[in-house]
């Protein structure tokens, strides 16, 4: 039998998910020096995962990562199976028979729960739903967000909370030349939201925004960032945190918050209010969210390990719509071990493991490997690490030739999903760009799977 990874016996790998970590895993495999054939399997007809469906429409520079992914997809060793769902159209065990290895890069598709009474009241939403909605993700296309009230509350102070707050804060003119979905632009154009409260359970030194994202709140056309100067008085442990040279980001955030606190009130219509040391206790309302009860917190513990403790005091914040933005969580796939608590596939340097050790042939990269943290580029090193583990395992792998993409195509042919190839995605892409042109938008996304499939006939 020829050596696995030789031109006579190429290493056949399936990558599940087409976001950044998926493309970086493909890139690392293509650059491995081995003969490889890599097929990417994506449940939507459109690739690019969170870069298409998560990155905010008004952050086009971040979407330039797609240019890199397009180059990777040009390789003749790359195949794309769009509109194919693992577990529904093909089982993991079937994939294992078709490929030498599978790399799961399916991200963190759901949200963490707050676990407080009233969390599921009408008008209380997850950030995931809102982000998916304004980005035209087919799963969230039909969600309805009632923006008729004046007060919106966002729980959490990470970059996703910043995205949600900024989209609520911007005018139609600031958004209309982005690739925001048409239905969202229309609804936001009718929004009556005037106050956007962005609430952290810990202090300003622990906020997880990055400086670039936070600074944008000072540059909005019709919204002022608002902050009480006294909220920026830090305890000694927080002072120690921002003095640490490895924590320059937090020191920068404090500087930006200080500049916000020093601003004179203006005549702008909207206010984005940053609040700290308040933890959600419960949501109240008659059939719909009307107020959020918050516990006043203090910090306890040493620098970098400070936790929020309730002081016993509570405040009630009237609220017409609420967004929970407290971090994402992965979801299980049948046939793959899952760590329910962490919301990841348990692994050792990218090798998926169960109670008895690594599961041969199963690998993981990106948020479903390490949890939802880091920026797009973080996933490159993460995927490279996983592919290094996979390549180190080659001598132990069953070297028998595998059917790979050809086998998968045959298997799917009898099962119904309209498989979308990369060439077909390019046609969908061109059609979206064409739809955007008359509006001065980079693209007008198709927001239903049927529309995407219609575009390719
Ligand atoms: P995140 O950065 O982890 O922020 C989560 C926030 O939720 C934190 O403020 C956290 O506070 C808070 N939180 C968690 N549990 C809570 C609870 N039970 N009650 C109240 N607050 C709670 O997560 P994310 O915003 O979802 O972002 C995920 C990753 O994507 C991050 O790495 C982020 O930087 C990245 N991202 C980047 C961009 C960009 O580069 N433009 C845009 C979007 C997302 P504690 O600190 O107290 O836990």
Mind explaining what this structure looks like?
The structure is a single chain. With 457 residues, this protein is of the alpha/beta class. The chain has two domains: 11-109 and 329-420, NAD(P)-binding Rossmann-like Domain (Rossmann fold, 3-Layer(aba) Sandwich); 113-326, FAD/NAD(P)-binding domain, CATH 3.50.50. It has helices spanning 20-30, 49-53, 65-73, 92-98, 127-134, 159-169, 172-175, 182-189, 211-215, 236-243, 248-261, 367-370, 378-392, 404-413, 422-436, 449-456; strands at 11-16, 36-42, 78-82, 101-104, 110-111, 124-126, 151-155, 195-199, 223-226, 270-275, 278-284, 291-300, 307-318, 321-324, 328-329, 347-348, 351-354, 357-364. The strands form four sheets. A seven-stranded mixed β-sheet has the order 3-2-1-4-18-17-16, sandwiched between helices. A six-stranded parallel β-sheet has the order 6-14-7-8-10-9. β11 (278-284) and β12 (291-300) form a beta hairpin. The longest helix is centred in the C-terminal third of the chain and has 15 residues, at 378-392. The chain is globular and about 75 Å long. The mean pLDDT is 97. NADP nicotinamide-adenine-dinucleotide phosphate binds at residues 59, 114, 155-161, 163, 200-202, 206, 208, 210, 213, 279-280, 325-328, 372-375.
């Amino acid at each position: 039998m020829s050596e696995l990874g030789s031109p006579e016996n190429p290493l056949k790998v399936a990558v599940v998910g087409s976001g950044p970590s998926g493309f970086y895993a493909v890139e690392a495999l293509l650059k491995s020096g081995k003969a490889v054939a890599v097929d990417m399997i994506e449940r939507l007809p459109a690739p690019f995962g969170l870069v298409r469906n998560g990155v905010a429409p008004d952050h086009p520079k971040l979407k330039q990562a797609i240019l890199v992914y397009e180059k990777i997809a040009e390789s003749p060793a790359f195949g794309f199976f769009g509109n194919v769902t693992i577990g529904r159209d093909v089982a993991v065990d079937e994939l294992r028979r078709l490929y030498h290895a599978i790399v799961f890069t399916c991200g963190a598709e759901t949200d963490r729960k707050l676990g407080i009474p009233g969390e599921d009241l009408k008008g209380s939403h997850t950030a995931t739903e809102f982000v998916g909605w304004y980005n035209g993700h087919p799963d969230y296309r039909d969600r309805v967000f009632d923006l008729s009230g004046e007060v919106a509350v966002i729980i959490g102070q990470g970059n996703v909370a910043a995205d949600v707050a900024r989209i609520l804060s911007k005018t139609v003119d600031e958004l209309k030349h982005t690739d925001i979905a048409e239905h969202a632009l229309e609804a936001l154009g009718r929004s009556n939201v005037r106050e956007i409260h962005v609430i952290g359970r810990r202090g300003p030194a622990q906020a997880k925004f990055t400086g670039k994202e936070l600074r944008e709140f000072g540059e909005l056309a019709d919204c002022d960032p608002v902050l009480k100067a006294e909220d920026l008085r830090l305890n000694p442990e927080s002072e120690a945190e921002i003095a640490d040279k490895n924590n320059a980001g937090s020191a920068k955030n404090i500087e930006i918050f200080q500049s916000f606190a020093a601003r004179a009130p203006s005549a702008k219509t909207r206010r984005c209010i940053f609040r700290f040391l308040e933890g959600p206790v419960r949501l109240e309302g008659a059939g719909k969210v009307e107020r959020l009860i918050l516990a006043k917190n203090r910090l306890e513990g040493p620098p970098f390990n400070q936790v929020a403790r309730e002081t016993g005091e509570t405040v009630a914040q009237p609220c017409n719509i609420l967004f929970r933005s407290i971090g994402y969580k992965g979801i299980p796939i049948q046939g793959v071990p899952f760590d329910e608590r962490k919301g990841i596939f348990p692994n050792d340097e990218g090798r998926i493991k169960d109670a008895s050790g690594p599961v041969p042939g199963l690998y993981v990269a990106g948020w479903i490997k390490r949890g939802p943290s880091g920026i797009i580029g973080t996933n490159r090193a993460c995927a490279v690490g996983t592919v290094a583990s996979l390549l180190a395992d080659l001598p132990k792998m069953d070297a028998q030739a595998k059917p790979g993409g050809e086998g998968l195509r045959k298997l799917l042919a009898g099962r119904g999903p309209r498989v979308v190839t990369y060439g077909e995605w390019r046609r969908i892409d061109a059609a979206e760009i064409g739809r955007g042109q008359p509006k001065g938008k980079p693209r007008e996304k198709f927001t239903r799977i049927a529309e995407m499939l219609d575009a390719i006939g």
